[in-house]
Amino acid sequence: MAYLQSSCMVLTTTPHHHTSPSSQSFSAKPSHFFTHPNRTHRLQVSCNSSEKQTPQGKLDRRNMLLGLGGLYGASNLASNPHSNAAPIEPPEFNKCGEAHELATNDLLDINCCPPLSDTIIDYKLPNFTKLRVRPPAHKVDKEYLAKFEEAIRRMKALDKSDPTDPRGFMQQANIHCAYCNGAHDQVGYPNLDIQVHECWLFFPFHRWYLYFYERILGELIDDPTFALPFWNWDNPKGMQMPKIFDTESSPLYNKNRNPKNRPPTIIDLGSSGASEDLQKVVNNLAVMYSEMIRSVNSTVDFMGKPYIAGQSPRPGMGSSERGSHTQAHVFVGNPKNKYYEDMGNFYSAGRDPLFYSHHANVDRMWSIWERLKTDVPKDINDPDYLNASFLFYDEKKRLVRVKVADTLDYKKMGYEYEKVDIPWLNYKPSKKAAKTKIRQIPSDAKKAEEMFPLTLNKIVRVLVNKSAKGQADEVLVLEDIETDTTKFIKFDVFVNDEDDKADELDRAEYAGTFAQVSHKTKDKKGKSTINLKLTELYEDIDIADDDFVVVTIIPRSNGGDVTIGGIKIIPSPPKSA
Ligand code: C2O
């Protein structure tokens, strides 16, 4: 009870039983498939205050629940030696609720809840003797394409022949909506969404999602070796929508895309606004190098922040999620549609066949990152991470429970990526010619204390004190970034930038980015922090014995909907997961 500081009030006392997912039992009659109890009479807890940090620095609402008079069997919790373990549990499908339209919070006209099943199987990975090798989408041959198209055609056909078949295309698309648009509550926490983005579940969740999607496609064409193609957007040869997705008569085509960005338009992974193709390409390589290596200071900087049961969703995105990942979504989605459907919004992203190839490359980035020889540890050993679990339907329509731990060695999941060049691996921007301290302090630059918190409705220049004169192993922290989660948000950060060439990212001064795909959560506002490692940047601009730097923050999209609480530079924390 040491952390019980909240004063909480039970507003509605309809009991909300904490059931373990295996105790869900439903008749699998079709009439149940799309009916879900509505969510009005649920326990609502209203708290004014202050969830305290546990010594591990995690929010702990379990202790709050202890204060509610044993509603959840608090005594058991208290005496359970594992009561500290709080991995995110799989959603209770029978309690799935509505997904909402983002800006208005009105009900969407789709129900993205999954079919129910009366059994849940703990999933065991089969023993794969041969790996499915995922090819780059721009290089596949005719024979492969024919297979892939046939598999997608059959998946789409299921939507018509049996809309309740969990392997159907819309059912697969809806998985993303259900795990991302507030359809599921955390088990036992009716006020908190399950959200697989903006946290350390981002990579493992999508790895499982693609795994089953790929296995289902293989099943539908009776080819267990079938492997999804990946959209190789990190390589100049793949920096446009893969052409195989752009043939109007193909089942891979989707009309809900930005018509301006059809091939051969080059993707702008940094949202740099560059107009020249060559500049876009070098910017893209710079973005990749930055989000994979240069700006990454810790494991969760790359993976996403810890997220455990009882904690508010969206504790913070990793560098890859908020960088290239977000940009590719936004590049494909159609800005003429209300919510950038399909790819530009979580609820609809899975309706575009290209989504899965985009995420195959995101997954490939994780696999590459794990092998990088940088000083950041690659594994997270926290049981709250390893034991977090999800539910999926497998290729035989069985509802299975899967764990994060089983994604760590992806080859055990039976697949691999075809080897292609990784041109950004050594893409260090060139050092600044004049290796001197910033020559002139911009006239509009002020000290952080005088400017923050601020709304990012214009370019901001701020003087930030270093942790020590000349200290080179430092991290730039932007704190309490509050965004309207229904908007696409993007801003870039530069250090000691005097050139004001905002559309060139392949420069030593580029420190990193923040970007967010719009989505709905119960609280429309999201708060997060980003850390940008400066060590290498300093080597390239030479901070000599400076005791401050000038940070430039450039809003790229909806800056008026972002407030930043504070900015500071701290010594690089010790390297641990
Ligand atoms: Cu789950 Cu790229 O979104």
From TrEMBL:
Q: What Pfam families does the record point to?
A: PPO1_DWL, PPO1_KFDV, Tyrosinase
Residues in Tyrosinase copper-binding domain copies: 197-214, 352-363
| Cofactor(s) recorded in Swiss-Prot or TrEMBL | Cu(2+)
Signal peptide (residue range): none
Q: Which UniProt keywords apply?
A: Copper, Disulfide bond, Metal-binding, Oxidoreductase, Thioether bond
The record's listing under InterPro entries reads: Di-copper_centre_dom_sf (IPR008922), Polyphenol_oxidase (IPR016213), Polyphenol_oxidase_C (IPR022740), Polyphenol_oxidase_cen (IPR022739), Tyrosinase/Hemocyanin (IPR050316), Tyrosinase_Cu-bd (IPR002227)
| Stated family | Belongs to the tyrosinase family.
Protein name (Swiss-Prot/TrEMBL): Tyrosinase copper-binding domain-containing protein
Q: Could you read off the lineage of the organism from its UniProt record? A: Eukaryota, Viridiplantae, Streptophyta, Embryophyta, Tracheophyta
